[in-house]
Amino acid sequence: MALANNPSLARAAALVEAARGNWVQVGLPPNFAWGYLGQQLGSGNAATQHALLVDGELVTAGKLRWNRAIAEQEIVRAEQQFFAQQQRVLTDVRVAFYEALLAQRGLDLARQLVAIAQQAQQAAERLHRAGETTRVDLYQAQIEVASAQNDLQNATARHFAAWQSLRAVLGVPQLPPAVLQGDLEAIPPEPSWEEVLQRLWTTSPEVSAAVANLQRAEAALVRARREPIPNIRLQMGVMQDMGYGGKTDGIVQTLLPLPLVNRNQGAIRQAEAELAAAEQALRQVELDLQNRLAPVYERYTAAARRVQRYREVILPAAQEALSLVRQGYSAGEFPFLSLLNAQRTYFQHSQQYLQSLLELRTASAEIEGLLLRGSLGSQP
After folding, report:
1. Torsional sign, CA 147, 153, 154, 159
2. From CA 37, how far away is CA 305, in angstroms rounded?
């Protein structure tokens, strides 16, 4: 849906077509011109001459071919920018999907906590009527219900916001909400730092665009060095003598610029500097990818370990503790404070588990997406 509807992709595709149109144009030779030449028109046809002329410029030294060599690399760069934009869209969709899915899970958790708090309140009311607890416990139970309802409202707002983001990156702003399904629990295999970095350097469209820019600068330097080679200006025509005899003859004129003062030395110097800048830009992109990967890889590995600990140790213990305390409180074996602590512990760690899942999935999507995000804000 996003590949068909996200407007940034249509914009990037249009820029590719613009570059292709430029390739066609810069390789076309100059148009020939035609005109009329009249000489000695006031001689009463005694010496009048009329000529039909054709004037044109012949481009030499393969300049048109090198124009297209430059434009060809501009096409490649535009195509790589399109691929980068496509990857941004895919990453944005993956991240927005997981944010909406986690918001959906958070909403379910908040509803579950409201139900638990209400059950605790009912138990407190029953024990208070039986004289087995104080009004303080009853008030605490009421506070917990209100607090859980506030958390439910917050979870509802987060769910709404997550769906707005998902709709936006899909390019379908009126898409109705639905129950999402996805595998949140599976921890993807952890790649090594060297594997991820090497994949970035070899497959990233940002690197490919920088390589295309470098090759464009190389072609531009060759083109600049060929500019001083003069083009040939040629003029030919057929002339009719209107005087006695009325003979027909021709005219040929050739002009060749002399590159004595202007040898394109400034443009050549500029092209050399731009080539040097393009070489450094390629290295800069590679180092930038390494720099951007470092915090993402750190988030990924740390989140993977947190998810595993929550799943194997913390959440089972918190859930079992809450179940035991709820049973014990209903039987009058535990004070309400124990139930309150158990509920808060379970809710806190459940939220942290969901947040760790989101961080894991987000970092995984960024690594898979070659660190490319922000499709609606980027300008290819």
Report:
1. positive
2. 87
C-alpha span between 112 and 125 (Å, rounded): 20
What is the per-residue pLDDT across 135-180, written as a single tens digit (0 to 9) for each? 888 888 899 899 999 999 999 999 999 999 999 999 999 999 899 9
Q: What is the pLDDT of residues 358-378, one digit of tens each?
A: 999 999 999 999 999 999 985
Please report, for the chain, the start and end positions of each structural domain, with discontinuous segments joined by +.
Answer: 2-368
CA–CA distance from 154 to each of 12, 110, 160 (Å)?
38, 9, 10
> Thinking of the domain 2-368, which architecture would CATH place it in?
Up-down Bundle (1.20)
Give CA torsion, residues 267, 268, 273, 278, to 10 deg.
Answer: 90
- Cα–Cα distance list, 181 to 75, 99, 171, 223, 296 (Å): 40, 12, 20, 56, 25
Nearest to 171 by CA among 370, 11, 366, 364: 11
